[in-house]
Amino acid sequence: MANHSICDYTRNDRSGDPMLPHPIPYQGSKRKLAPVIATYLPDEIEVFYEPFCGSAAMTIYAANKRMARRFVIADSLAPIVELQRAVVEKPDETAKQYRAIWEGQKDGDHGYFNEVRARYNADRDPVDLLYLICRCVKNAVRFNKTGNFTQSHDKRRLGMLPDKMQSAIEGVSHMLKGKVEFRVGDWLDTTADARPIDFIYMDPPYLGTSVGPDKRYHQQMTQEPLIEGLAQLNSRSVPFALSYDGMTGGKEYGPPLPDHLGMTRLLLHAGVSSQATLSGRSEETVESLYMSAGLADPVAAVIRGPEQIELAL
Asked: What is the pLDDT of residues 191-204, one digit of tens each?
């Protein structure tokens, strides 16, 4: 298994590619952090699991870099998994349906978004969900505990243009078709067959969005079941990475996970906080990346992008 220090990152050939296709613009997506996270992954992976898939940014990155032979995309929210399936298995139909939905709107017609949202909440059509994600405020997806989409529309834009969406869908389908399995369910169930030769990347709902008044997802993740699940992975010798909590503007979200799990905690610079921007503040975000035993050496400093690291060396 690979074991990288901070200096290795600038010499690693798994560099970022801003042109990678991403049809699902999820806030909190690990698209920008994917090159850094990938630096700490094993060199050879049989099956790459992403059980809290969201936009599946890490799967897309890993597929593009041929880091695994096969992939499992999963989530407890069925429509997001069905959207991922539609992108990969029915790219032409999905792009055509998105175009029709997008072209049905008019600039300034705020009622149209609400109509699509009501239709999605009734029927759970995955391409309706794609339009809602693209058009909602800051792509900040919000669901209630029944799975209904609750976020409002962004008045400043109309969402991803259909031609760009079609290109992104075709790109992801080309990379993943025939190499991926889609699963719906709890993360421990959808990774139950993972082996030591596989790898699990997890980006669950953060503690700050799972307790208190700011619940954003249909299913929250408190620390107790997460810790129990990670201990199970350790008992099976399944390697994993976990993106979980961090800090914004000096405010820390949740305590570190316990030492008995044997993980290495890395701090990754994640850019300016979108939530703070919405409130008129400019604050930087640092996210925690926990690596299972043997995958990473501890690093005292916050890990930034390769261009910033090179300046510091």
From this structure: 999 999 999 999 99
